[in-house]
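# nightly structure sweep
# worker-07 picked up a monomer target from the shared queue
# config: single-sequence mode, recycle default, output format = structure tokens
# input follows
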Amino acid sequence: MKQYEVVFKVLKQLGGYASFADLYKAVLADPDFEYKTKTPRETIRSIVQIWEKKVTFRLRPGVWGLLSEKDRIPPELYGKAKDPNVQRASDHSLYQGMWLEIGQARDFRTYVPAQDRNRMFLNTPLGKLTDVEKLLPFSYDETVQRASTVDVIWFNRRNMPAAFIEVENSTDFQNSLGKFTDLQDFYADFFIVAPSDKEQSFRRKLDISAYESIRNRVHFRSYDDTGALHSKRDEFREFMKLGRA
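# output follows
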């Protein structure tokens, strides 16, 4: 089979859509896929993108589907849900799932709030992606309770928080920044994940004096940034394995 035929075959086997990370993994494991370069993931990505609007289409940053399977794909996965609440919930769980997998690839244990565990990341409940079922008691009870609603937490090998991540697609960032302010005493990174057109609003909000103590610690990552990072999931994992060799 030709390379592009294998890619499209595998994408159909995955349900007609997949993240780039899952597509890379499945195609590279397929015995029909032959490659002679040292960058097979780039080859797969190029095939998907070259055939855009003819065979493939982009659902979300880092997630692609087959046009022939479009009627089988839930409309919220490509931003076409009739109910805006359904669309926001779908976007939220999609990027939560990506940040869970990015964290795991970087050798962190991961957590999502109990109320989000049954929400779906593509075809998988978020709860099945997490390493930490119950939030680790890393501090005083009231502090742990405050952290329990953060969308994604990464924990290091010492069971201390390494990053707090909030996905924002319908608010003014105040709630998330308030959480980060309360958690500022931990040696952890803070990330706001949101559509790129919300970045200026985020910058204005962060400039309020109430957030001065965390201003230089909060990082904005767009959905596009997230898709690009997630597409390198297995490369992160391979790199971390080299570090432990």
